[in-house]
């Protein structure tokens, strides 16, 4: 059942022949007869300046909804609300799916970068180990040979060697004419004898 329309001034309802009813922008309804009695562009109830709109079947749906029963309105708007709700839910799901795919790609990239960082750290550790544990050959070569020092003399080298006075059974006996053969006991160190 629709909301009853009546004039806010004389309280008459639509009848046959029906006078036209008007709605003011301040929210009051008046019949055409009362509007003609009052001042032009002034509400008969609140005495404010107002504009009027004739109520008819051609009136906009928003204005007509003011006079519809609440249960009809609730059904109408619940259907619209459910459509809007379904649309928004689908929209959210699409957005969520997109964000999940984006996150998966970022996680994969992060995993690859983490693996690369770990590989680089291993390389750095190996290089550090090699640099600290293996002495530099350049250092040893250059430290053993000084630019200003001369090579040790033969007598200095002989003094640093240990001589085995007892001949080895595996060695040939020396001839009396040749020089005495020396046996080296200390192994060479740093590329030099003695």
From TrEMBL:
A molecular function GO annotation: ligase activity
Membrane-spanning segments: none
Segments of this protein annotated with the region Disordered: 167-194
UniProt cross-references to PROSITE patterns, sorted A to Z: ZF_RING_1 (PS00518), ZF_RING_2 (PS50089)
Taxonomy, superkingdom: Eukaryota
Domain RING-type: 7-47
GO biological process terms held by the UniProt record: homologous chromosome pairing at meiosis; protein sumoylation; reciprocal meiotic recombination
Pfam families the record matches: zf-RING_5
Coiled-coil features, chain-numbered ranges: 96-123
InterPro entries from the UniProt entry: Zip3/RNF212-like, Znf_RING, Znf_RING_CS
CDD domains xref list: RING-HC_RNF212
UniProt keyword Ligase present: yes
GO cellular component: synaptonemal complex
Key words of the record: Coiled coil, Ligase, Meiosis, Metal-binding, Zinc, Zinc-finger
Name of the protein this chain belongs to: RN212 ligase
